[in-house]
Specification:
about 350 residues, mainly alpha, Rossmann fold, Tyrosyl-Transfer RNA Synthetase, 2 domains, three-stranded parallel β-sheet, 5 strands, about 50% helix, about 5% strand, binds tryptophanyl-5'AMP
Length: about 350
């Protein structure tokens, strides 16, 4: 999908536009989460009023080890900050600390149709992967995600390609709800990066790089050490092209196209420049160059996250302040919704 054009904030005096997104702490953050989502978030914090959260309510749609979930939620917060999300400029919070998410989620369950929820590709994929635990939460997941979004009335929701369908469903809910009750919710736009929107597994370029995969070698984690990143890229699948030509062709050369996307996203170069740079050099020169670009992109994040993670008191201050601010905005929207649907005021 074409990236929505975000013009610089021309009207400095107008209220800032709002951006919101979240990530499930269901696994360690990957290069995919970074290039598809977080990288786009930090580039906008001056221009927008930004809300970013750890989607722990969403994480339990798949069984989690409680201690791991707790640890990863805090690690994720440290990583958000290390990626450049300044807590003074962005509202960073833990989803379960703002109960309005679950409350609005229930209401929106009643405004989403069984048919449309059944068509969600993530529900189908996750049902296949967790055949022994196809729970109700997995099915109604997009209603909770719609609540996450609509509570804050955002203009843009920066996500990777795989979440576009869920944002579209939130848009359907807005249309349906506003159609009955008037302009309650603002219509959110998905904001999807031009490169990095779908980072694929290095060992299997047909499938998305995913934090919940046990795979290991095809998944690059934000906290991976340089030698691990180098090893993973060395083993990355390319193709059997005898000329070993670095050319962007996702149909016939999905492995190389994935590496080119990663390289382009990390260096800011476009595909033509990447092709020119490696013309006649083959995969032997290309793969280590991609590894180096990723190592240098992630190095400062890893070092800073490790430092921040040691300061538990600081993290607690950040997530408490974040929940307080988020809760104020969220309760305003929820109050309006409750009134519209006919609940008696407390
Ligand atoms: P999640 O936790 O699966 O992924 C977090 C974000 O990272 C993006 N992403 C990728 N982008 C490119 N390539 C990849 N391989 C890759 N893997 C992940 C995802 O698109 C996403 O933007 N349901 C959401 C979390 C959520 C949310 C929300 C997002 C809950 N409520 C409200 C936005 C707004 C999810 O499971 O993302």
């Amino acid at each position: 999908m074409e990236q929505t054009i975000l013009t610089p904030a021309t009207e400095q005096t107008a209220p800032k536009r709002v951006m919101l997104s979240g990530i499930k702490p269901s696994g360690d953050l990957t290069l995919g989460s970074y290039l598809g989502a977080i990288k786009n978030w930090k580039e906008r914090s001056e221009q927008f009023d930004c809300y970013y959260f750890m989607a722990d309510l969403h994480a339990i749609t798949v069984r989690q080890n409680p201690a791991d979930l707790r640890r990863r939620t805090l690690e994720q917060l440290a990583q958000y900050i290390a990626c450049g999300l300044d807590p003074d400029k962005n509202t960073l919070f833990i989803q379960s600390h703002v109960p309005q998410h679950a409350e609005l989620g229930w209401v929106l369950n009643c405004y989403a149709m069984f048919g449309e929820l059944s068509r969600m590709t993530q529900f189908k994929d996750k049902s296949k992967k967790n055949a022994d635990n196809i729970n109700g939460g997995l099915f109604t997941y997009p209603c909770l995600m719609a609540a996450d979004i609509l509570l804050y009335q955002p203009d843009f929701v920066p996500v990777g390609e795989d979440q576009k369908q869920h944002v579209e469903l939130a848009r359907n809910i807005v249309q349906r709800f506003n159609g009955v009750y008037g302009e309650v919710f603002k219509m959110p736009e998905p904001y999807i990066p031009k490169v990095g929107a779908r980072v694929m597994d290095l060992g299997n370029p047909e499938s998305k790089m995913s934090k919940s995969d046990e795979a290991g070698n095809g998944v690059v984690y934000l906290m991976d050490k340089p030698e691990d990143i180098a090893r993973k890229f060395k083993r990355a699948v390319t193709d059997s092209d005898v000329e070993r030509c670095v050319r962007f062709d996702p149909e016939t050369k999905p492995g190389v196209a994935n590496l080119m996307s990663i390289y382009a996203a990390c260096t800011g170069k476009d595909f033509a420049a990447v092709e020119a740079e490696f013309e006649g050099k083959g995969y032997g020169a290309f793969k280590p160059a991609v590894a180096d670009a990723v190592i240098e992109t992630l190095r400062p994040i890893r070092e800073e996250a490790a430092r921040i993670l040691k300061d538990k008191a600081y993290l607690q201050t950040v997530y408490r302040q974040g929940a307080e601010k988020a809760g104020r905005i969220a309760s305003r929207t929820l109050r309006k919704v409750y009134k519209k649907v006919g609940f008696v005021e407390r």
